[in-house]
Amino acid sequence: MNKLSVSLPGLEMKNPIMPASGCFGFGKEYAGFYDLSVLGAAAIKAATREPRFGNPTPRVAETHSGMLNAIGLQNPGVDKIMENELPFFQSYDLPIVANIAGSTVEDYCEVARKISKHPQVSALELNISCPNVKEGGIQFGTDAATAAALTKKVKAVSSKPVYVKLSPNVSNIAEMALAVEEAGADGLSMINTLLGMRLDLKTRKPVLANKTGGLSGPAIKPVAIRMIHEVSQAVSIPIIGMGGVSSAEDVIEFMLAGASAVAIGTANFVDPYVCPEIISQLPELLEKMNVNHITELIGGSWKECGIPSLSR
Amino acid sequence: MKKEFVRVISQKEIAHQIFELKVQGEVVAEMTSPGQFVHLRVSDSFQPLLRRPISICDVDLSNRTLTMLYRKEGTGTALLSQKKEGETVDLLGPLGNGFPLDAITAGQTALLVGGGIGVPPLYYLAKELTKRGINITAVLGFQSERDAFYKEKFAELGEVFISTVDGSLGTKGFVTDVLNNEDINYDLLYSCGPTVMLKALEAQVPDADGFFSLEERMGCGIGACFACVCHINGGEPSDYVKICSNGPVFPIGRVAL
């Protein structure tokens, strides 16, 4: 029996591990390191209606146990992604989550309508939480009514399940989650990056050309755990958890918090083999914890049934 | 390209804050193209988190040893400079595309122009070119005498000109001043250094054929994170190249500097 399999709307996964959007390009780079079919799924880089170059460089800055990025949703546009990037995954056995972004409701709907029809796409991830673009992105992700309205429109045109990627840059994330659940979201992914900044003492100016960037990496893990713990108890749709995951132990922690699957982002930049390594370490870790199937862990930090080994 | 814990053979400071690090590992066998780089993880902890891109300065394929030169500047390179003989370093590489060696033929002359920590990859290039019967002339620019390195090593392979900003060694000024002062004939130009130097060079010798190796802050080093992206000359506004995976070496004029 596969102890690691998880099932989410549109995503039948061999294991709960997927690279996070924006940290995996369109897969080709990592295919040079390992067989992508070992992954539970993969979320590809955000698609927008038109090609985007993104922000000027420097686009990344290291921080304590983390990094700031302000890439700015660089991508060749939805048409080219469908034509040139998605067919690559035909040779692999894994569901693909297509991340979609836009500046207007119409943009999102157009991208969603198109890319959800692609045979390689199993689900959409509605990116309403990118902190690095001037228009669109996060403005849809910080107001519950706006997020819900967008979710409803995208759901109406998408032929695949829709996961809404939530921003941690809000005062009440459960309210956001409930609003998009009510609007028809099939699942949530959380958290996107935290808005941050670093200054250069020599120039006395921000290190990033965009001034601000999104903070990711191990530094944000406790924030993600807290938010997933809170949101998973408030909603009944599944959560793809992410935010600083870099080990098998982190994956367990995210699932105990309430995630049904776990995405790995920044850690891929540190070690391109991190996803397959974590996947291979999970069975032994489950055994140590006396867990028969990984799904038993989901919400274990707050569910009364808990995990057998932890019940005293 | 692969990941390996390579063993430190030696480490010494050869100029002000410039360290020469020699490591040994099976992965070195793949480092046959001058101009490629490696990505080092200098700590097991999350501080610093990301790898450090370091150019390949010299390779001994028979002994599987790699020589890297780097400037000790921030937290990462400070930690790297503390690595002692016998310790290991997590190395990913070789990454990127090196300098084309077949763009020039035996008997012709290559001009190698390097600035600061852009000099190291030109040394492996110089060795490979001379091995192929190509003459080399090197113009190396540094801040001052205490920052200069590998002058003698290059001199074993061809003619060398040095420039220093303060004039403490060689020509006072920049590499471009050397090119102004000296009558250097060459067939192909190879250069690596700060973007400002490459820009000045491009303006000075607009008709030169050759290759530039570019520097930019990197995230992943393998083309996935889109941190080190550049515009292309004459392309659409959305056209780009990634320095890590499409470069770091590009034909002169291809990338908008």
**Residues in β-strands, percent of chain B:** 25-35%
Indicate the mean pLDDT of chain A: 94
Based on secondary structure, the structural category of chain A is: alpha/beta
Quaternary state reads: heterodimer
Report the principal-axis shape of chain B. Answer: globular
Total of DSSP H or I helical runs spanning 4+ residues of chain B: 5
Radius of gyration of chain A: 18 Å
Assigned CATH class of the largest domain in chain B: Alpha Beta
Instruction: Fill in the CATH topology of chain A.
Output: TIM Barrel
Query: How many angstroms separate the termini of chain A?
Result: 27 Å
Which spans of chain A have pLDDT < 50 for at least 5 consecutive residues? none
The main sheet of chain A orders its strands as: 3-16-15-10-9-8-7-4
Q: What's the mean pLDDT score of chain B?
A: 95
CATH evolutionary superfamily of the largest domain in chain B: Nucleotide-binding domain of ferredoxin-NADP reductase (FNR) module
Outline the biggest β-sheet of chain B: 7 strands, antiparallel
Distance between the termini of chain B: 28 Å
Give me the strand/helix succession of chain A. Answer: EEEHEEEHEHEHEHEEEEEHEHEHH
> CATH topology of the largest domain in chain B, which one?
Rossmann fold
Look at the structure and name the CATH superfamily of chain A.
Aldolase class I
Pfam families (chain A): DHO_dh (PF01180)
Subunit structure (chain A): Heterotetramer of 2 PyrK and 2 PyrD type B subunits.
EC number (chain A): 1.3.-.-
Catalytic activity (chain A): (S)-dihydroorotate + A = orotate + AH2; (S)-dihydroorotate + NAD(+) = orotate + NADH + H(+)
